[in-house]
């Protein structure tokens, strides 16, 4: 009934004066202004034939990676406990913070003069590359020689939601397309039966920035991320209602497509093409998604490798699903794991206990993902990115000037660690260096926009040329900045 009602509504909207007057309540002047700013598309979109916006497209140059798996730890784990070995910081443990670290600086929670805090982790070098990792990890050292570290990352934002938006959309403000949306807009999808951009969440909550971190912004809505679940129905509201068989559903979609095509020919609104593609994709996904999201048929050794438990919602299950999705041709798979905010205001948010528990939840499965991709010959063409929205201070948090009950660190923008593996980046490599206390990047600093530019470069894009005209301006993921991190490319 819903499709039939929409079909009737679309027909009425094209024919009635009442609709015209209702839509023009802002005045004809606003209509003219909208035309001037290209609010319904640009010259290129107006000349588009009626084609599927998810059709495969050719990038600017030969790509080194075909797909991306981005692992984002929401809340920002401390680089000083995991990757960034600072023996000098340990010598200052418990001593008052130097005034130079506080003058003119703004922190989320630190007030007054906090104490310095040495790393809770015990560090050791691993692999032929000598990569530093702490004893928080048990499995990941096995693949140390596959990873390229960026140890002097920095950002502009120190609160979770705007920092997450900045990492994934290039802007701290709402309304910009996410990285996966840009990639799908630029490349299309290799699998006509699956979305080009899939999102998987774990940890019990969504990211602080909400679904905007996988939204399409001003791009046509067909490019937004499709959130799938490893527990229950893979996609909500995808199943046919009772009494509607698949043949009748197909006839209804065909009829609606014909009306939408007629509307596109008349108004040239690119969103109409997106609507056509979304209905067709949803129809195909009713068969393809349950199949690819079913991990129960994976062999026993794979479940043992990842530590997966079919039917449950977990980061481990999502890592295995990410491998299956890129194997099926999905361009961009985004994993968000919530619960990494380690302020030390409770046991669950402490560096001693909470952070160790979270690492135990991801250590085996991330290692398995890299090993599995490699054994299938997929790692060279799949770029795996591990990241977070910002770093942590070398000082212990003293919220409102009071000592916390457990060890924790405040938000920090000036130095943190991300890493990449596969997809044409160097193996067993480390770039960037923070000062001896881990406060500020002093060598080969890399900005969020630099990381974004590099990811696009590995997919075959010049980040300055992958643009979309909106309101009279060409927008891009990296805004007006960003440089490809050439030193990390193999």
Summarize this structure briefly.
The chain is an alpha/beta fold. The chain is built from 14 helices and 17 strands.
Structure description:
The structure is a single chain. The strands form 5 sheets. Strands 1, 4, 5, 6, 7, 8, 11, 12 and 15 form a 9-stranded mixed β-sheet that branches. This protein has a two-stranded antiparallel ribbon with strand order 2-3. It has helices spanning about 1-15, 15-25, 30-35, 45, 80, 85-90, 160-170, 180-185, 245-265, 270-290, 300-305, 315-325, 355-375, 450-460, and strands at about 65-75, 125, 130-135, 145-155, 195-200, 225-230, 330-340, 380-385, 390-395, 410, 415-420, 430, 435, 440-445, 445, 470, 475. Helix 1 runs parallel beside helix 9. It is built from 14 helices and 17 strands. The model is unreliable at about 35-40 and about 45-50 (pLDDT under 50). With about 500 residues, the chain is of the alpha/beta class. The longest helix has 23 residues, at about 270-290. A hairpin with a 6-residue loop joins strand 13 (about 435) and strand 14. It has one domain: Alkaline Phosphatase, subunit A (3-Layer(aba) Sandwich). The protein starts with a helix and ends in a 15-residue tail after the last strand. The protein is globular.
